[in-house]
């Protein structure tokens, strides 16, 4: 015998006891009389005692059935209330969303628009986890995440919000001192700063329109877990770095950084709203997905705009 309680049998029993009729209980539940009867019989067999005295004209609870009926009815009502509350929760955006976002992107482009989201959805709260480390959505209990990537895990349900380019950059004063590299191999031996949370390994992969490819492993005096930490050293004219456009574009506009190797671009990635594949998206998550899509699909940081 299964150790799992026979919740269905208890619910059927509670409804028959309430209606005092198998036929009336079946109509109320939208089931056949045979299904209700089998469920009650199964419960009686499991419990080892009869719950009803049945005759052709009359149905009544046994003494054992009377001792169980009140608890079974309460269990039925509690389950009904729980299901109704859950259905309402899934239909109306409310409750807590645990959202994981890369730190630099989250501080620049997500945190500033959250007040508008809260005004639109006053019953939704957000636990914003800012980290460049890739989180395990299921294992760490996140409802959703923003991911910036060229390739995503196939286990995720993803909505692409916009493309995200990455650039090899340097300050004008660096180029005045060391010259402008014309080919990826010209980076070998130069001070090229590294990023610890690259998806596969800290390698710069370049692809020309012709299909030619080059890979360079950056080697420099600084390696970081957050791309913003690269900016001061680059602006000081001491090194070359790879930066995403949502960080670099402001420095391109004011001339404090320049794009290198324009004939050898890095693969373009994307900004994605992702959720676990096995989880149905409740209304609160759908509301956040729609909000972020509308606000981040045509960003001002695209370069060139």
Automatic annotation (TrEMBL):
Record flagged with keyword Transmembrane: no
According to the lineage, what is the superkingdom? Bacteria
- Entry keyword annotation includes DNA damage: no
The family database entries (InterPro entries) matched by this protein are listed as: LysR-type_TF_proteobact-type, LysR_HTH_N, LysR_subst-bd, WH-like_DNA-bd_sf, WH_DNA-bd_sf
- Supply the alphabetized keyword list: DNA-binding, Transcription, Transcription regulation
This protein's name = LysR family transcriptional regulator
Family note: Belongs to the LysR transcriptional regulatory family.
The residue ranges of the HTH lysR-type domain are: 5-62
């Amino acid at each position: 015998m299964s150790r799992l309680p026979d919740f269905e049998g208890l619910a059927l029993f509670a409804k028959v006891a309430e209606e005092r009729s198998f036929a009336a209980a079946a109509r109320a539940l939208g089931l056949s009389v045979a299904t209700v009867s089998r469920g009650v019989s199964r419960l009686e067999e499991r419990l080892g005692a009869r719950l009803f005295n049945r005759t052709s004209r009359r149905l009544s609870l046994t003494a054992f059935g009377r001792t169980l009926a009140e608890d079974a009815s309460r269990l039925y009502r509690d389950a009904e209330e729980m299901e109704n509350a859950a259905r309402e929760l899934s239909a109306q955006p409310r409750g807590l969303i645990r959202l994981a976002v890369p730190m630099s992107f989250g501080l620049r482009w997500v945190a500033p628009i959250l007040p508008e989201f809260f005004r639109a959805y006053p019953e939704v709260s957000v636990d914003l986890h800012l980290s460049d480390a890739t989180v395990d959505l299921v294992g760490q209990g996140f409802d959703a995440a923003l991911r910036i990537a060229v390739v995503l895990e196939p286990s995720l349900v993803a909505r692409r919000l916009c493309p995200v380019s990455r650039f090899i950059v340097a300050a004008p004063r660096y180029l005045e001192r060391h010259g402008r590299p014309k080919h990826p191999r010209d980076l070998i031996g130069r001070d090229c700063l590294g990023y610890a949370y690259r998806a596969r390994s800290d390698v710069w992969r370049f692809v020309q329109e012709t299909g030619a490819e080059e890979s360079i492993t950056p080697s420099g005096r600084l390696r970081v877990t957050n791309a913003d930490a690269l900016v001061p050293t680059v602006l000081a004219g001491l090194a070359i770095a790879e930066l995403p456009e949502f960080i670099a574009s402001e420095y391109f506009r004011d001339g404090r950084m320049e794009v290198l190797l324009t004939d050898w671009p890095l693969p373009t990635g994307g900004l994605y709203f992702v959720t676990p594949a096995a989880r149905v998206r409740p209304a609160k998550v759908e509301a956040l997905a729609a909000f972020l899509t509308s606000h981040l699909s045509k960003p001002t940081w695209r370069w060139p705009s």
